[in-house]
Amino acid sequence: MKTVFSPRHAGHSGQTELVGGEIVPGFENPSRARFIRERIDAVGLGPVIEPGPHDIALAKRVHKPDYVDFLPNAWPMWRVAGHSTPAMPFVWPAPGLRSDVPPDTIEALLGYYSFDAGATFVEGTWEAIKSSFDTALTAASLVKEGERSAFALCRPPGHHAGSASMGGYCYINNAAVAAQWFRDQGAQRVTILDVDYHHGNGTQEIFYARGDVQVINLHGDPLTEYPHFLGHADEHGTGDGEGFNHNYPLPAGTDWAAWNAALEDALRQLSGFAPEVVIVSLGVDTFERDPISHFRLRSDDYPKMGSRLAKIGLPTLFVMEGGYAVEEIGINAVGVLTGFESG
Ligand code: OKP
Ligand code: ZN
User: Fold this and answer.
1) How many helices (H) and strands (E) does the chain have?
2) E strands within the chain?
3) For domain 2-63+123-342, which architecture applies?
4) Where along the chain do its domains lie?
5) Across all residues in the chain, what is the average pLDDT?
6) pLDDT under 50 in the chain at which residues?
7) Which of 20, 115, 322, 335 is least surrounded, with the fewest CB atoms within 10 Å of its CB?
8) Is position 294 annotated as part of the catalytic site?
9) Which protein residue has the closest C-alpha to ligand 1 atom 7?
């Protein structure tokens, strides 16, 4: 399997996050991609190529144009406003406040274009966001050109990013951009299967009223798990999208047996939809020792996941999302890919 990877992710580094009222170094750090990259070489997964540049207009097919235009401006505006620490949102137009008047200052714009404080900017953040977007589209092209599968080693991740909101370490929704690109290239139906521990609220929101992109999520129950405010089992889609969104919220402590049972149900939904291409939002924060998650998958479960996904028998694009047990992230993520290759 070919991997697409850009060293430009590394500029998104030294960013911080708020955990329990304390500002700490981000869990989503450059070593994540480095460990995965090293594991690809160690097991000989296949060639690693750099992405080519893609028109940012493609991001505006799934995100609001003004939101996409904001992203490269955030850090420069933050600097002009006199700050040098990472830019972090802190005020939001919650229900009862007005969100129809875009504000003028960067402090307010950060909140206007986010749903939490979890997407922060440093000097190299925009370049990393753009490289992650380019990575997803370059890998999508490989699949379109006939590869059975490809791995987009994206960083930062994307599945929390909605049509006009960043959050949860995500800015541009790489999987959603790729799905739209496959549609624009002529695929009639595309499925996004999100196996990250956290519900992919952004992906769900983007395609919620559409019947051409099926969205399936397996994740920690939002009653207790981030992102808390989407991902319940009764969210099935709306309008043309009715019946094309499927959520599998699972309890803390879920192990492979229970997770796999949910996957089997999910794959019945997928088969019924008969997509032409599958995009896997690949998070490995379902791992038993993930520092911010509560499932109990073990390293030897990931190849099983991959081989099951191969049995779907469809062209498959893997797009990297979460996973924060950095010592094992390479073993686990690449385990899915080697399992797919042998499956
Ligand atoms: C991004 B991805 C819990 C705080 C949650 C944000 C988690 C973002 C996960 N104490 N922080 O889906 O892996
Ligand atoms: Zn996650």
Assistant:
1) 9, 10
2) 2-4, 16-19, 22-25, 48-49, 149-152, 190-194, 213-220, 245-250, 277-282, 316-320
3) 3-Layer(aba) Sandwich (3.40)
4) 2-63+123-342
5) 98
6) none
7) 20
8) no
9) 168
